[in-house]
Amino acid sequence: MNSLSDKQASSIHRFELAGLGKAPFQFTGKVTETVFVACPGATPKSGSSCDYCGTGIRYEFWLRSADQKEFKVGCDCIHKAGDRGLIKQIAAAERKLRDAKNQAAKARREAKKESRIASAKSNLPSVRGALASRPHPSSYFANQGRSLLDYVLWCFDNRAGEKAAVYIERAMAGETLS
């Protein structure tokens, strides 16, 4: 008769049942990122595992039990455990991680865009003739004798460098410009 009844087991915190310490549990405020990279240039993989379920995790949310045991779990296990207090405690940390990832992605996109525009500007002299020999993409301006080169230069002057880069890249590749 050492086994717990269903009612007793359901009142005990899942992390406590797993032997991670005594409830209540507190988020320490510490989130660490651990990745594994098999070789240079490889995609980073989860470099740690959840102490509760053993699943590979990249972001470790550190918790402390009432008996001062510290352990790491993934945010999914915190949500699955259903501990509203812990869920509330990690909400800000999850937002901070999400915002940081979004900011980093935005910075990468912006850097890629700027690199593409810089490359297009440096390649412009080599395709100037091909662009000048093509009509402006707008029939209104084409009828006024404007060329695709005029449009590309306008794009660079008016914060539309990516559009200009498309035409320069196509001209560099020898594609038909229209």
Give an overview of the whole structure:
The protein is an alpha+beta fold. Helices cover 52% and strands 15% of the residues. It has a 3-stranded antiparallel β-sheet. Strand 2 and strand 3 (45-46) form a beta hairpin. The chain starts with 5 loop residues before the first helix and ends in a 6-residue tail after the last helix. 21% of the residues are buried.
N to C succession of SSEs: HHEEEEEEEHHHHH
Number of domains: 2
Helix fraction, binned, reads 40-55%
> What's the total helix number?
7
Question: Could you tell me how far the N terminus lies from the C terminus, measured between alpha carbons in angstroms?
Answer: 83 Å
Provide a short characterization of the protein structure.
With 178 residues, this protein is α+β, with helices and mostly antiparallel strands. It is 52% helix and 15% strand. It folds into two domains: 6-89, no CATH class; 113-172, no CATH class.
What does the secondary structure layout of this molecule look like, with pairings?
Blueprint: H1 6-11, H2 14-17, E1 26-33, E2 35-36, E3 45-46, E4 48-49, E5 56-57, E6 59-64, E7 70-73, H3 75-81, H4 84-132, H5 139-143, H6 148-157, H7 161-172
Antiparallel strand pairs: 1-6, 2-3, 4-5, 6-7
